[in-house]
UniProtKB/TrEMBL annotation, chain A:
InterPro entries: ABC/ECF_trnsptr_transmembrane (IPR003339). The chain crosses the membrane at residues 41-67, 79-102, 108-133, 252-272. Keywords: Membrane, Transmembrane, Transmembrane helix. CDD domains: EcfT. It is a multi-pass membrane protein. It is found in: Membrane. It comes from Aquibacillus albus. This is Energy-coupling factor transport system permease protein. It comes from the Bacteria.
From TrEMBL, chain B:
The keyword Transmembrane applies. It holds the Pfam family DUF8171. This is DUF8171 domain-containing protein. The keyword Lyase does not apply. The chain crosses the membrane at residues 15-35, 47-68, 217-236, 256-278. Keywords: Membrane, Transmembrane, Transmembrane helix. Residues 16-281 form the DUF8171 domain. InterPro entries: DUF8171 (IPR058484).
Length: 281, 291
């Protein structure tokens, strides 16, 4: 019971706000962050698809090693990686546990290991690319892939509005708490308090919705005055906006290196395969 | 009834609905991200999303734009900006959630009618959860080679997915979906629309008959797909739970697998056709207004 209370007291809105700002507006000056965003996205797509095509553990381990090296260059916060690892391990653990209950054996564990490896490679690839990419650059890259303008606008809008919205919700939530009263009788495992906070979190959305509606109207009208929807439909505007995106030699080297590496890993994997023995039926 | 005409939104009003739904659901997701979870073995009691926020939006405003904005808000605010963007995995969530919310919005004719609101809320969250179960089961199916040969895994996946489906429906669907929506929608109805500069929704607003007819196809398609997937998944393995019959698989294993895969493919196809059709039925009106 005490541990829950401690945990709750550590999660203050202030702390979370700082953590958020750090992730959203932190230093993007890493190796992956300097790549051309379009190249980085194509690179990610390759590694989101490739692991599904192989069941050979050597190949998968090779890719995993590559990801780990890249991540260590990219200086990703260790917290994100620990959280990811913990999640993957516990999930696989539950599946193994329940399958043993249904009369399975450790072949289940081996099969799941391959599956977990695939998921890990994909998640690491996405962390390597997106944790260090500037959201503005990301939205421009999406625009150059001809995604709808609203989506790209949404990303830059969110990037700028996030602090304001969090601040506002926090204020409303606190004013509800000031006017309300925390139940004195806590109940078992504080459930009455949990219910109280959940209710407040829901109630706070009523003024929040009205305020955001007003703000949205202002934003959209300001945008329309500048001809936003009109500009979305015009090729010249797009070209002007994306003119700063250039593929540098370093992007090309990186890409060639990656393709070379993929081929090598697959080749080595075929020479020394570690594959699950298919259970004889 | 002559004043009830099918109201069309201008381009900027559509953008307004889209951005509003995006920001609100984005913030809601940041809040659910930081709420602690209670994990009891494989049972996870956590609020995975505040479904009432997008539900309120699709019930009060144009369902299409609100339903597109909400999952995008989740991706941008809670994932991209907080540093855990899942790449292609996000696309899957976007389609599942967007479709659920869109159907929910089209089911409601009159936002003051509580029965319609309740039905819409439950079906909306239900579609999202069913689609995500289909995708999860499919992933394991594809990701583990010769799944039938590994005893126990498939049953355990089914059990775990079943547990998560139930808790999700209970917590996200009812406690944070149905109940707050029934409270919020009547409170906001007629109050929030003037702030954004349009008329409150009436039975003829924002729904074309083509859209409503399509919804009647989408709901059974998703539901049948869900049932088909689970049934085929079980059939591939074993009819009797926990008793292993290798001969059965030997004889029918591959065929059953293909039946399952094709069932999933059909559902996907139906979904895509439905979406494309809806888009087409929407577009001509857009053009007549937008130009």
């Amino acid at each position: 019971m005490k541990s829950i209370k401690d945990l709750l007291s550590k999660i203050t809105v202030e702390n979370i706000k700082i953590e958020l700002m750090r992730t959203a507006y932190g230093n993007k000056d890493t190796f992956m962050g300097k790549l051309d965003p379009r190249v980085a996205i194509v690179w990610y797509l390759i590694f989101a698809i490739i692991p599904w095509l192989f069941w050979n553990n050597t190949i998968l381990l090779g890719f995993l090693l590559y990801m780990v090296v890249l991540l260590s260059i990219s200086r990703v916060s260790p917290l994100i990686i620990i959280l990811l690892a913990f999640g993957l391990v516990t999930e696989a653990g539950y599946i193994i546990f329940v399958s043993v209950m249904f009369g399975g054996d450790l072949t289940a564990a081996m099969a799941l290991l391959t599956f977990t490896l695939k998921l890990t490679i994909i998640s690491l690839a996405s962390i390597a690319v997106f944790a260090s990419m500037d959201p503005e650059k990301f939205s421009d890259a999406l625009m150059s892939f001809r995604l709808p303008g609203q989506v790209c606008f949404g990303i830059s809008y969110g990037y700028r509005m996030l602090p304001i919205l969090i601040e506002e919700y926090n204020n409303i939530f606190n004013s509800f708490r000031l006017r309300g009263k925390v139940p004195e009788d806590r109940g078992v495992i504080h459930w009455k308090r949990v219910v109280y906070y959940c209710k407040t979190a829901v109630f706070a959305f009523y003024p929040m919705m009205l305020n955001t509606a007003k703000r949205t109207r202002t934003t959209v009208e300001a945008l329309e005055v500048k001809g936003f929807t009109y500009s979305l439909k015009h090729e010249e505007v797009r070209k002007l906006k994306l003119s700063y995106l250039r593929v540098q030699p370093r992007d090309i080297y990186f890409f060639i290196f990656t393709i070379f590496l993929i081929i090598t890993v697959i080749y080595i994997g075929h020479l020394y395969p570690i594959e699950r023995e298919i259970h004889p039926l | 009834m002559s004043h009830l005409r099918s109201q069309q939104l201008s381009q900027s009003q559509k953008l307004m609905v889209f951005i509003l739904s995006m920001s609100l659901f984005g913030i809601a997701n940041i809040i659910t991200e930081i709420t602690p979870e209670f994990v009891l073995g494989p049972v996870e009691l956590s609020v995975s999303y505040f479904a009432f926020v997008p539900l309120t939006m699709v019930f009060l405003f144009s369902p299409l734009h609100a339903a597109l904005g909400a999952p995008l808000g989740e991706i941008i605010f809670a994932d991209l900006l907080m540093g855990d963007f899942g790449g292609l995995g996000e696309l899957e969530g976007f389609i599942e959630f967007g479709m659920g919310m869109y159907v929910a919005g089209l089911l409601v004719k009159d936002p003051t009618n509580k029965k319609q609101l309740a039905l819409g809320a439950l079906i909306g969250v239900g579609i999202d959860q069913m689609l995500s179960t289909i995708v999860d089961v499919g992933k394991v199916w594809f990701g583990i080679e010769e799944l039938e040969a590994v005893p126990g895994v498939a049953e355990s996946i089914l059990v775990l997915e079943g547990i998560s489906f139930t808790t999700e429906m209970l917590i996200s669907g009812v406690l944070f979906g149905l109940i707050p929506t029934l409270w919020l929608v009547p409170k906001l109805y007629g109050k929030i629309e003037p702030l954004m500069g349009f008329e409150p929704r009436n039975p003829a607003t924002f729904r074309s008959s083509a859209e409503v007819i399509n919804v009647k196809f989408i709901i059974p398609a998703v539901f049948l797909g869900f049932v088909a997937m689970i049934a085929e998944f079980m059939a591939t393995l074993d009819v009797n739970f926990a008793v292993w019959e290798p001969e059965f698989i030997d004889q029918f294993g591959m065929q059953f697998l293909w039946v399952g895969v094709s069932a999933a493919a059909i559902v996907l196809l139906v979904a895509i056709i439905g979406i494309v059709k809806l888009k087409n039925s929407q577009n001509p009106q857009d053009k007549s207004k937008g130009a």
